[in-house]
Amino acid sequence: MKIRDFFRRGEAAVSVQTAREPCRGWDGLLPLATPDCAVYDGLRRAIPVIDAAIDKIGRLVGGCAPVCSNRAAQAELEAFFRGVPVGAVSWGMESFVRCYLDSLLTYGNAVGEIVVAADGKSVAGLYNAPLRNIAFRDAGSPFGVQVCAAKDGLAPVPVPWPELIVFSALNPAAGELRGASLLAGLPFVSDVLMKIYASIGQNFERIANLRYAVTYRPGANAVDRACAREIAENIAREWADAMDSVKQGAIKDFVAVGDVDIKVIGADNQMIGTEVPVRQMLEQIVAKLGVPPFLLGLNWSTTERMSAQQADILTSELESYRRLLTPVLIRICTVFLRLRGYACGVDIAWDNINLQDELELANARLQNLQADKLARELERTEENR
């Protein structure tokens, strides 16, 4: 049967033919917290560059403001953005977005909840849910899932009001519910980098922390041979006393009689150069994070033009994260408006990423106006002819 015959008969598809398979977890549940989440937390603690990059992305995404056609609703939305409680210790929509984006980048998934006031006429606050408490279950449709939450250590159960839950996944694979972390692919590279750092520390302990070898060779006379042990013990005491005086800020010379040789242990050894392999590993990490090196304190050789190109690439990365956050913010604002009795819609306006963008936009507008002016002058000249 042809497709046009199918639609001519008025039949409708009841399911997606290539839909994903049901969740194979315990009791059909798909937990959002995976063992990889602990690995990603460890990466952020162990490698400061990764933690700094995620924090900078959160700050560079910038702030946002609601845009509504109704003036009264606009005023209430602006007050809501400024003072909405977020968890127990934070206020404002920016705090919620920062925590939400941090979870999205680190684990590939982020979950938030809209908490309705007791009287049901407003939003009491927003809550960033930890992923370990959330699991998904198939809802019988490829376009939705059943959100389940675990409480008091019990098995996850469906939440009573799923319409108050917001969820985002970062670059999920086809047919998958869970997203992919921004740090996916970095554990191997980071493990190599940590081994290099560990070896640097061990080499400094062996070489940089100086240790001395004091050698006494007895002479050929009878006194040296008979009292060699006593002389060696005396030299050892004097040497230890001279070294201990340094800890107290005093400098004491060491004087010995006879054939005494003092050498630094390991002075002939040289530390292996690690600049090249460390930079290779950091290049892979920076490439995955999408943050220009100069923003992370990496003073690699670059040109002004290259820096401008890297800034443009970062701008596009930040715009993509904003596109993921915008539907979440619109849903939160829509719930707030409906609870307040407004039927109007809402949009989200993001701040310009930096002043350089504003300057470029102003220059572009100026050039467009100059081009329009020249076009009008040419038209008048042709008409006069």
Question: Layout of helices and strands, plus pairs?
Answer:
Blueprint: H1 3-8, E1 29-31, H2 35-46, H3 48-60, E2 64-67, H4 71-83, E3 85-86, E4 90-91, H5 93-107, E5 109-116, E6 123-129, E7 134-138, E8 145-149, E9 157-158, E10 165-169, H6 186-208, E11 212-217, H7 222-226, H8 228-247, E12 259-264, H9 275-289, H10 304-339, E13 347-350, H11 355-384
Antiparallel strand pairs: 1-7, 2-13, 3-4, 5-6, 5-10, 7-8, 8-9, 11-12
Structural class: alpha+beta
Shape summary: elongated
Beta content comes to: 15-25%
* Rg, Cα atoms, Å: 34 Å
What string gives the helices and strands in order?
HEHHEHEEHEEEEEEHEHHEHHEH
Low-pLDDT ranges? none
Helix content: 40-55%
Number of domains: 2
Give a count of the beta strands, DSSP E runs of length 2 or more. Answer: 13
Largest sheet descriptor? 4 strands, antiparallel
Strand order of the largest sheet: 1-7-8-9
Distance between the termini: 67 Å
Write down the overall mean pLDDT: 79
Figure out the total of helices. 11
Task: Explain how this protein is built.
It contains 11 helices and 13 strands. It has a 4-stranded antiparallel sheet with strand order 1-7-8-9, with no helix packed on it. Strands 6-5-10 form a 3-stranded antiparallel sheet. A two-stranded antiparallel sheet has the order 2-13. The model has no long low-confidence stretch (mean pLDDT 79). The radius of gyration is 34 Å and the shape is elongated. 18% of the residues are buried. Strand 3 (85-86) and strand 4 form a beta hairpin. The protein folds into 2 domains: 1-183 and 292-353, no CATH class; 212-264. The longest helix has 36 residues, at 304-339. With 385 residues, it is an alpha+beta fold. Helix 3 packs across helix 5 and helix 3 (48-60) runs parallel beside helix 9 (275-289).
